[in-house]
Write a sequence for this structure.
């Protein structure tokens, strides 16, 4: 297993660590949902926990908030251990703001009273009613909902409820903001808009933020760094562009887009592909998989003999997607594998079906990983 | 900044071993207290009773068993036929008055069995208006004609059937409504007439609900004390009372109670078993206006009669008789003593309602905070008293409380030479304890259902926004469930107003309630005098029936009932289901 903390250290983001999950493991019954997960979020950083459903990302968030009891590991918040096995600081003492997937607004309270709800505890004790009201209105203003202060949650649309939930979480000025799939309840048009709004509100507030999402695009859009999780483990932590350019393993490479895949065995420091032998540092004799992003395949009509990193294919189908053509290519049989690859071609090329084309491989978007032994 | 935490000091902020906090401790404590009387009673199976048990077993016990069995068979059949039949009529046929009967069929629930028992006795006995009228019309005199003897086993069966059938009606009706329109429409397109549709489709689908309803009815039958005692029918509860009060043998009474408790446990297991085997799944969930069979002519008249008779005999007639008597006797009966008794009833019922709601709220919330197998079982134990007859609970409450009183007095005499008397067993503490054992389930089920309105994430949100569990309870859960708390309190209040056996056995000396007074005057053959307190009880008993009726009237397809009404109905349904 790769050491996650090691990868976490690769990335240099300045600032003090505000929230640290230190080799946290967690089980529900006999199901292990988190396995030695280490994540740290630095001051003002926006971190996305990204992974398929059931990968443990929400559990990690709930553990950080203190609404799930820690079983193994340690959670440190602003320099203090807030959770160790058998010793927990309850959520109300942690100063974390949380936005829930269903917003969880209190139906019996007006929008303003919802946002004022968290203005309790030591640091708000000195404030009188007016000052609290002012702070709540400030938070509502931040999310553009000041006009709805006297409305009740059931009178609001999904997007408005989401904004109120965000204002409620931000109002007490928490040390960490935790958002659990905050946009999944919104329809796709609204989602992009609210996402952008949320990003700016959160960034303006300067609060260290953890967002749980299963949507790679959302994570890439919002995050300073992305924590890619799978089956309870951290696969990789890095900046979005770095993750995309240099995925640590096949899971990370394929999670951000659909990807072309073939298998081979390393011989003489290289692995055979239809485009030629791809050099790799992986030891000879290792069974590897070669992952090629659709963007890595440049399609052109053949103009002469094949050059380096070129191969011949014929077109099975070609479709115009919004920003690119999507071309299905057949490379025929290669080492016993029937190769049907997809190319995402920005040139808006629309070759006819059955046409022979030459395909150029961009090696920067081609990744070789040892084939992972199948987990039982 | 929020107060920071020092990891070195574990006690105050970092709570370790949180599996066992104050909330769960409370749940376990309540479960233990509630289980105590039942365990005490069951423990008496093993206590030697100096031949009294052998004496009982060889003399009265076989009679108690056969009588109780006959009662159960009779009431079970009667209540199922009336309950299922009327439920089918009002949900799947259309005839004049159907919408009125839909809720009116619940009205008999408002009348306690002992009240309807002496009302019919007064109505039908030799000197009563029915026979008098018959003699005046025909010129017959005693012996010239046959008249039914109400004060008999068949009479008791009839009385209990008339007031208990609504349980079957309520659950069957809900089951018929739940049945997918499609299933019924398909059966109609396949050529099923109303009768075949009923017997081949609707009834088999509704069987689990009917079984649950019948189980409820049988439990209430075994719980009944007033009717059987008044009619001189020797069932178990009457036997327990006689053994205790008449023979002064609490140990033998406890042994009878233990046998009765085992009887009920068997009944519950039987119901669970049939339900487990007969689980019916609805494959589609399209609810529309049900396709009703339109009854015309003679059929409509028969439908009207079939739905109308239970309402007439179970509510209208006895209520009229009571009102008639009360008009005559009220000026004499409604005096200072009457108001004192009404006040006693009100105080007891209010105290019990508040206690039951507070305890149930803490338990339900504690369960929500930390649900484990142990706490779930504890809550189930705390709710099981509902199936145990009041007379049994009374025995189980009195024995340990008297023992504790003895200890207390030994202690005070030894230390201060003062006798403090029966501080627990001789006061309303004992009565309230018994009410909690019997009725905690009522409030608990209503409150647990209503806590469903508060999502888990709302709990979490309140906590991350700085509230301790108690703060979240006060600021989120209580305001949101306010309406249901009131419903729960009303249900317990009314049950306590009507309760007879436990009150009768445990009340402090000279402490009378309306129910006790009504029962005692009826026992002294002052039937008309008993009318005023009885009518007061019936009027209070109508409140939950009206609540239920409103919920039913508004839960028809296409009507979006308010959340409170839906919760009220869900709570009542759940209460009914949970009893079984």
């Amino acid at each position: 297993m790769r050491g996650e903390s090691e990868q976490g250290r690769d990335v240099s983001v300045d600032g003090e660590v505000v929230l640290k999950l230190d080799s946290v493991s967690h089980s529900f019954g006999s199901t292990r949902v988190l396995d030695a997960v280490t994540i740290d979020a630095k001051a003002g950083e926006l971190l996305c926990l990204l992974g398929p459903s059931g990968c443990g990302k929400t559990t990690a968030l709930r553990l950080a908030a203190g609404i799930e009891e820690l079983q193994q590991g340690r959670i440190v918040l602003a320099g203090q251990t807030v959770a160790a096995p058998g010793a927990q600081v309850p959520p109300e003492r942690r100063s974390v703001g949380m936005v829930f997937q269903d917003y969880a607004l209190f139906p019996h309270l007006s929008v303003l009273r919802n946002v004022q709800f968290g203005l309790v505890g030591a640091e708000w004790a000195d404030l009188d009613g007016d000052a609290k009201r002012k702070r709540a209105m400030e938070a509502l203003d931040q999310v553009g909902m000041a006009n709805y202060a006297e409305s009740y949650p059931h009178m609001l649309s999904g997007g408005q409820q989401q904004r109120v939930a965000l204002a409620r979480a931000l109002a007490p000025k928490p040390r960490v903001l935790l958002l659990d799939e905050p946009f999944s309840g919104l329809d796709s048009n609204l989602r992009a808009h609210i996402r952008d709004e949320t990003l700016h509100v959160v960034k303006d507030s300067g609060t260290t933020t953890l967002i749980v999402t299963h949507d790679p695009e959302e994570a890439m859009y919002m995050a300073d760094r992305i924590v890619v999780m799978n089956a309870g483990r951290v696969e990789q932590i890095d900046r979005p562009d770095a993750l995309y350019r240099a995925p640590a393993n096949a899971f990370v490479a394929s999670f951000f887009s659909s990807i072309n895949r073939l298998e081979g065995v390393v011989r003489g420091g290289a692995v055979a592909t239809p485009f030629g032998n791809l050099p790799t540092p992986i030891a000879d004799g290792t069974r590897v998989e070669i992952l090629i992003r659709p963007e890595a395949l440049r399609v052109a009509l053949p103009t002469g003999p094949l050059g380096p990193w070129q191969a011949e294919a014929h077109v099975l189908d070609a479709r115009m997607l919004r920003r690119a053509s999507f071309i299905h290519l057949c490379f025929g049989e290669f080492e016993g594998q029937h190769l049907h690859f997809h190319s995402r071609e920005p040139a808006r090329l629309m070759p006819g079906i059955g046409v022979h084309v030459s395909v150029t491989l961009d090696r920067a978007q081609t990744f070789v990983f040892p084939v992972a032994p199948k987990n039982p | 900044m929020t107060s920071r935490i020092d990891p070195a000091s574990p006690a105050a902020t970092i709570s370790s071993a949180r599996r066992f906090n104050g909330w769960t401790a409370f749940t376990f404590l309540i479960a233990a207290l509630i289980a105590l009387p039942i365990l005490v009673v069951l423990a008496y199976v093993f206590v030697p009773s100096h031949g009294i048990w052998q004496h009982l077993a060889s003399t009265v016990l076989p009679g108690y068993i056969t009588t109780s069995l006959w009662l159960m068979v009779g009431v079970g059949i009667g209540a199922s036929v009336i309950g299922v039949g009327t439920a089918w009529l009002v949900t799947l046929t259309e005839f004049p008055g159907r919408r009125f009967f839909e809720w009116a069929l619940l009205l008999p629930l408002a009348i306690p069995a002992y009240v309807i028992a002496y009302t019919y006795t007064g109505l039908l006995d030799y000197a009563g208006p029915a026979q008098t009228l018959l003699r005046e019309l025909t010129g017959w005199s005693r012996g010239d004609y046959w008249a039914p003897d109400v004060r008999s086993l068949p009479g008791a069966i009839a009385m209990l059937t008339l007031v208990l059938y609504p349980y079957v009606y309520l659950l069957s009706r809900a089951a018929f409504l739940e049945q997918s329109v499609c299933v019924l429409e398909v059966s109609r397109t396949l050529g099923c007439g109303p009768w075949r549709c009923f017997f081949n489709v609707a009834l088999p689908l509704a069987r689990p609900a009917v079984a649950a309803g019948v189980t409820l009815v049988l439990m209430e039958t075994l719980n009944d004390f007033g009717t059987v005692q008044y009619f001189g029918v020797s069932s178990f509860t009457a036997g327990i009372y006689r053994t205790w009060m008449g023979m002064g043998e609490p140990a033998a009474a406890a042994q009878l109670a233990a046998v009765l408790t085992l009887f009920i446990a068997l009944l519950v297991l039987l119901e669970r078993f049939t339900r487990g085997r007969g689980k019916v799944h609805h494959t589609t969930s399209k609810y529309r206006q049900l396709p009703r069979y339109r009854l015309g002519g003679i059929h409509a008249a028969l439908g009207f009669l079939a739905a109308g008779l239970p309402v007439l005999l179970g509510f209208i007639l006895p209520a009229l008789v009571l009102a008639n008597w009360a008009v005559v006797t009220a000026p004499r009966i409604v005096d200072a003593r009457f108001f004192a008794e009404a006040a006693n009833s009100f105080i007891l019922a209010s105290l019990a309602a508040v206690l039951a709601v507070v305890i149930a709220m803490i338990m339900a919330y504690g369960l929500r905070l930390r649900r484990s197998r142990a706490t779930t079982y504890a809550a189930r134990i705390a709710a099981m008293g509902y199936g145990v007859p009041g007379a049994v609970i009374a025995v189980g409450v009195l024995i340990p409380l008297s023992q504790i009183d003895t200890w207390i007095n030994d202690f005070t005499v030894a230390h201060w030479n003062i006798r403090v008397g029966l501080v627990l067993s001789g006061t309303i503490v004992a009565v309230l304890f018994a009410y909690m054992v019997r009725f905690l389930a009522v409030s608990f089920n209503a409150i647990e259902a209503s806590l469903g309105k508060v999502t888990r994430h709302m709990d979490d949100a309140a906590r991350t926004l700085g509230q301790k569990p108690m703060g979240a309870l006060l600021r989120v859960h209580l305001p949101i469930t306010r309406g249901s708390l009131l419903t729960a309190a009303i249900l317990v209040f009314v049950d306590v107003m009507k309760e007879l056996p436990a009150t009768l056995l445990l009340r402090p000396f000279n402490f009378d309630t309306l129910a006790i007074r009504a029962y005692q005057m009826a026992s002294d053959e002052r039937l008309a005098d008993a009318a005023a307190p009885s009518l007061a009880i019936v009027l209070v008993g109508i409140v939950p029936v009206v609540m239920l009726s409103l919920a039913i009237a508004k839960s028809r397809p296409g009507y979006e009932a308010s959340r409170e009404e839906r919760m009220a109905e869900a709570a009542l349904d759940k209460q009914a289901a949970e009893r079984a």
Summary: The longest strand of chain B covers residues 93-94. The radius of gyration of chain B is 26 Å.
